[in-house]
Design a protein that fits this description.
The structure is a homodimer of 451-residue chains. By secondary structure, chain A is an alpha/beta fold. Chain A folds into two domains: 111 residues, Urease, subunit C, domain 1, CATH 2.30.40; 288 residues, Alpha-Beta Barrel (TIM Barrel). In chain A, a hairpin with a 2-residue loop joins strand 18 and strand 19. The termini of chain A are far apart.
Chain lengths: 451, 451
Amino acid sequence: MENISDDIVLDILIEGGTLLTMSDGMGVIDNPMVGIKDGRIAFAVQKNDDGDARTYTAKKVLNASGSVIMPGLINTHTHLPMVCFRGLADDLPLMDWLNNHIFPAEARFVNRDMVYAGSMLAIAEMILSGTTTFCDAYFYESSVARAAVDSCMRAVVSQGFIDLPHQNDPVKIVDIAENFIDKWQDKNPLIIPSLACHSPYTCSTKTLACIKDIARKKNILYNIHVSETKEEVAIIKERFGKNPVPYLRDIDILDDLTLAVHAVWLDDDEIAMLRENNVKVSHNPESNMKLAAGCAHVPRMIKKGITVGLGTDGCASNNDLDMFREMGSAAKLHKVIQLNPTLMDAKTVLRMATIAGAKALGIDDQTGSIEAGKYADIIIVDMKKPHLTPLYNHYSQLVYAASGSDVDTSIIGGNIVMHERKLIHVDLPSIMQEVRIIAKAIAGNSFSGGY
Amino acid sequence: MENISDDIVLDILIEGGTLLTMSDGMGVIDNPMVGIKDGRIAFAVQKNDDGDARTYTAKKVLNASGSVIMPGLINTHTHLPMVCFRGLADDLPLMDWLNNHIFPAEARFVNRDMVYAGSMLAIAEMILSGTTTFCDAYFYESSVARAAVDSCMRAVVSQGFIDLPHQNDPVKIVDIAENFIDKWQDKNPLIIPSLACHSPYTCSTKTLACIKDIARKKNILYNIHVSETKEEVAIIKERFGKNPVPYLRDIDILDDLTLAVHAVWLDDDEIAMLRENNVKVSHNPESNMKLAAGCAHVPRMIKKGITVGLGTDGCASNNDLDMFREMGSAAKLHKVIQLNPTLMDAKTVLRMATIAGAKALGIDDQTGSIEAGKYADIIIVDMKKPHLTPLYNHYSQLVYAASGSDVDTSIIGGNIVMHERKLIHVDLPSIMQEVRIIAKAIAGNSFSGGY
């Protein structure tokens, strides 16, 4: 039982419905009370029949009857500004998509303003579909951080590095990385800075190691795409005579603050190597499906004890940021690939999208479950819908039948950011209009995938 | 150009936005006018700049600016009453799921009232997610038909047969089948009766052939689950010394009014055999994924010229009836299975869910595309949403990013059944309550998949 005193004045009290704590110890609580104070969870307990709630004062009371109260979802990998390329080029061969559509569009249209506008739109979509923390990796990442601050969203913002001709000056790389971290570390409770190297095949050994050194010195997360496609594994094998994971281990990249994104084409030795080094994995099933990258051995990784979070990837390869849809795909994909319907049960998938995601990002002491002391990152999902009726099992209903649009209320750090599906801190019409103007320029300058 | 006279008085005129006709000849029409009269499409044309609309009178005008106007979706395979078992038992081995959960629940709880209540709830969910025609197969199918009539939904209702001990009396089978057809054939434009045999492994040769004879005599559709799992293929091979498709051909089941559902484990010869006999296929990717049945060779079937429609299957194996989500899964699954991102492009998938679905059910002369003379089965999808912004390609946006909850208005046979997301002919709260009461009894009498 939490420490509840009589004279507490809560900022928010949520009552009723069913609480999925996603905490190992606490499980599911029917008819709960969740108290929020100073941005954090004060208590999460079952409501006594004698009307315990009346002994607390709350500035705001939210009635969650017929709803699920649960931790907000954690999207462990995305590239928010790519929302501007949503649907620009689909159903194409991977290299055609990348070299003739995405890279040219990025080279021409990515700038601070585009990154900010795209991030604002993406954050709006994420809040509306129940995400309360995202981990982004892109360029001009300070603009992503500013969008998160302006929309009251929690964000792990990863300044990205790739060895393009103008960017492989080691001195400059160190400057950019250190300045970015100094600018954001411990400045705003919503923003956790991080660094990202695009991949072993697009970054030199020097760049990979240099960025990891800085991340280690600053004690922050290091993101890297690893073995997304068969082709890139072959490239690394040819260049270095070994697979990507041993290559990364040999250059001292792997540790408990390394997040390997995708991790599709790993052999058993590589999975063991990730586990030994306590590396975390971000699984992006819909992107891997749509781009035909392949299917990561997630059930095996989880069995071996690797922490696996869920991510949507960017909107050019998904094409949405709805973590509920992503959960449905994660639950179903592995079953059909392995022809085993018991893999990736609903509770495991919901853990991936909440507490395991927080662990993957190294922030599970702060968020990812409903426990006293953690940030109040909470969503209320309305289960009184025809497609969520009847209701036998909350985990199953959320993973297999719910959509992002069933989220009624989102709270981040004790701040209500959406209520009754209305965004509180985002001016949606003007953000959508800004992105439409950017998209008009993009469409006029590239080959959109017409039919 | 359609035949438009000046003195026409329309029931409904839809103006603005973008029209996806899903008709081969007409394609996409920007800024269209769609006129509806006497339940049918009177015309679908581009609006002239000089304000052609003013020369027609319409009792009701719907403004579709910023929206897509398109044919309602066609769900070619479902078992509506199983909505009562949604989430009852998930993530279990197939035979455990079927024998210890679904079959016992069906034996105990399926009756006329349950079938009607479940169908009403399922129809509500379908209308709210853009489906305007479904093909159902279950028991007490007249109750499904009545639910469709009462909710103004178009339905191919298939009385189902399976050789359970009390049901394999050939005389009784013939009576049930013929009475069912006589009761519904040509009685109500919304209802198209049909017959279904559960599968080659659960029905005797006699039953399969007898039901097909009746279907042929009455010129109606014959539904049958074919080769959903590897195991049932092995059973048929052991019993008859051949695969299911040649077995069905040899007993004269295959023709252009046969719908093979699932069709997962077919070899090349069987695919050729379906094509030769003009058999249609219903593809249910999410059910096949969740139950780990396997992945049908749909791209190959389409390449060979087989008509393939899309279906959700019943809610016990999906667990929703949202054809938008089903489209997303259909588009992505085959790409990752074949490691080819060009398979199942968005337009192909949208065809599967509309005109190809109508062809699969033998009703493409009446519905499945927006063409003058067809029933006005139309949905209006609101594209002014953050997750549908920006908009480069309508097909891609609908398949990869839209959800059922983006459908604003649904029209079936010229009858507005949903507007601004409000159902017109269904009393949703009382239907949901009825199903909750049924579910309470089911939960009290079975092992629900608890965690």
